[in-house]
From TrEMBL:
This is Trehalase. Pathway: Glycan degradation; trehalose degradation; D-glucose from alpha,alpha-trehalose: step 1/1. Residues 228-598 form the GH15-like domain. It comes from the Bacteria. Residues 11-141 form the Trehalase-like N-terminal domain. It comes from Streptomyces finlayi. It catalyses: alpha,alpha-trehalose + H2O = alpha-D-glucose + beta-D-glucose.
Length: 609
């Protein structure tokens, strides 16, 4: 059946991918057995496999049943994670028998590893492995050669070592293996990254690494304190959030990918392999409320190192080790996912002014304090410094939560979160855990509240608006009752929820962030549209539960759960027209509100069955 036409290998739908990772980087594995995305050695490193954003020429590693030239690689008949873990099993039923491939990345102790174990289930199945390594996001072809019986690919500072007992051969700048697997037979392939100037990494122990990986995840999940009706969805989301945490520092990436489009064929493509303070803060909140205090402590320490002694220059995002310079560039040799260009690395929004971040960070520190996380005096000092900065800047226009690349505005959500920052700091002082000008900040809290209610509310339509003086709506307004800015039964809150339902809902009932057409076209400085934003849709379910419409909330929540792929993973958005997931994947900002809404619905008893 060889040679194969590998040009027929194209990236799958976003939801066709599974996530595996070692809490320092992550790989995406397609249903056809192809690893199409992997950055080594960190989340934000250059990709070794970048076929997801290009073609097979930009790197991939497929292991699966052999197939005839001129046909497409067969998709797995079924796949699953092994229990509550990040170990992936995919099985193919073929005319010659059934075969299983187990993919995983063990928690790192030395060189990063990706291991793939092929196991015969029944019959004798011809298999093929094609490993095409391309460094620097698919641009550089490495020198592949043999060293002491091992295969190594070298380019500049990088080397990737392949270890397997299966015979390999090179063809078309690709490392191939043809073999047959019998029932009960297990054959392993492992790649490891190592700086090219260092000694080779130790020989791997695939079976031992598999046991270690399964045990690690089982033990980690045992700490989860949520045991409600949505436990499966909550646990899978928690595992995903843990996988997006960079273990050495505690930083949390928004997603392990870059430039998966929010609009297929469009240019709304961004690099999410960094730590947004907002995303990380809400992730910390979910982890704390489900029993994961160690992760919360590590994130708080990361925050204190990243911000250091300079809260006046607080960035909205940092690198996973606290790096500040995240310059944005375009990779013109990559055509982009389904020709959605440009492909971007770095993120130019890092230096935007987003006042809401002060509120999210302060809320996270407040929750950590309230849930008994060991006191850190510098965390309290940082909180006070943030408020002193806000005193002189809260009334400025900013780019807002959605990082618009158009003109700055007085976004209502930004002002609400400035109020949150002041409110939580007042509570810290009132509790005797910090010292500050209590009366002055109480007056500031009242001033911000009054300003929002006077300038950000449209009394004729009974709704808050996206920004002062605008008529447009914004789904971030759904956070007003959740942050305690106004009580859920306030008529202005109910009016805003109902207005968003009317004006920002898609035909299938999900929620857009804001309108991107009509009079509001160009508010974000970008062309094209985008899908329904999943986090906003979860926020709506939360709000509906808060105002007593619990059946409606539950139905929306369970409809959102149905959008997850078969492995329980969510991207950033849902394209209602194409009926598919879009945006970077998997997305922390989607899995966090899933957890939060499940907790709220469970507490209210609003669930079926």
């Amino acid at each position: 059946m060889w040679p194969f036409d590998w040009r027929l290998h194209v990236a799958g739908r976003i939801e066709d991918y599974a996530l595996i990772g070692d809490m320092q980087t992550a790989a995406l594995v397609c249903r056809d057995g192809s690893v199409d995305w992997l950055c080594l050695p960190r989340f934000d490193s250059h990709a070794v496999f970048a076929g997801l954003l290009g073609t097979e020429e930009h790197g991939f590693w497929r292991i699966g049943p052999s197939y005839a030239e001129g046909t497409e690689a067969p998709a797995a008949s079924r796949r699953r994670y092994v229990g509550d873990s990040l170990v992936l099993e995919q099985e193919w039923d073929t005319p010659r028998g059934t075969v299983r491939v187990t993919d995983f990345m063990p928690p790192r102790d030395g060189a990063p590893q990706l291991t793939r174990i092929v196991e015969g289930v029944s019959g004798r199945v011809p298999m093929h492995s094609a490993l095409r390594m391309r460094f620097s996001y698919g641009r550089i072809v490495p020198w592949v050669h043999r060293v002491d019986g091992r295969t190594v690919a070298v380019a500049g500072p990088d080397s990737v070592w392949l270890d397997t007992d299966v015979e390999t051969h090179g063809q078309d700048l690709t490392t191939h293996s043809d073999f047959t697997v019998a029932p009960g037979e297990r054959l392993a392939f492992t790649i490891q990254w190592q700086p090219s100037h260092k000694e080779p990494p130790p020989l791997p122990d695939p079976e031992g690494a598999l046991d270690l990986t399964v045990d690690f995840w089982r033990e980690w999940v045992e700490h989860c304190t949520y045991h409600g009706p949505y436990r499966e969805a909550v646990v899978r989301s928690l595992i995903t959030l843990k996988a997006l945490t960079y273990a050495p520092t505690g930083g949390i990436v928004a997603a392990p990918t870059t430039s998966l489009p929010e609009d297929i064929g469009g240019s709304r493509n961004w690099d999410y392999r960094y730590t947004w303070l907002r995303d990380a803060a809400i992730t910390l909140s979910s982890l704390l409320r489900t029993g994961y205090r160690e992760e919360a402590r590590a994130w708080r320490e990361w925050l204190l190192r990243a911000v250091a002694g300079d809260p006046e220059n607080l960035q909205i995002m940092y690198g996973i080790a606290g790096e500040r310079e995240l310059g944005e560039a375009e990779l013109d040799w990559l055509p982009g996912y389904e020709n959605s260009g440009p492909v971007r690395v770095g993120n130019g929004a890092a230096h935007q002014l987003q006042l809401d971040v002060y509120g999210e960070v302060t809320e996270a520190l407040h929750l950590a304090h309230m849930t008994g996380l060991a006191r850190n005096d510098y965390a309290s000092l940082l909180q006070l410094k943030l408020i002193r900065y806000l005193e002189g800047h809260w009334n400025q226009p900013d780019e807002g939560i959605w990082e618009v690349r158009g003109p700055r505005r007085h976004f209502v959500h930004s002002k609400v979160m400035a109020w949150v920052a002041v409110d939580r700091t007042i509570k810290l002082i009132e509790g005797g855990d910090a010292d500050g000008p209590l009366e002055r900040w109480r007056e500031l809290r009242e001033e911000i509240h009054r300003d929002v209610c006077e300038k950000g509310y449209d009394p004729e339509r009974n709704t808050f608006t996206q920004s002062y003086g605008s008529k447009e709506l914004d789904a971030s307004l759904l956070l007003i009752p959740q942050m305690g800015f106004l009580p859920p039964d306030d008529k202005r809150v109910i009016g805003t929820i109902e207005a968003i339902q009317r004006e920002l809902s898609t035909p299938d009932g999900f929620v857009l962030r804001y309108p991107t057409d009509g009079d509001n076209a160009g508010v974000d400085g970008l062309e094209g549209d985008e899908g329904a934003f999943l986090a906003c849709s979860f926020w709506l379910a939360d709000d509906l539960a808060m105002i007593g419409r619990v059946d409606e909330a539950r139905k929306l929540f369970e409809k959102l759960l149905s959008l997850r792929n078969d492995l329980g993973l969510l991207a950033e958005e849902w394209d209602s027209r194409l009926q598919r997931q879009v945006g970077n994947f998997p997305q922390a900002f989607s899995h966090v509100p899933l957890i939060d809404t499940a907790l709220r619905l469970t507490a209210s008893g609003a669930y079926g069955g």
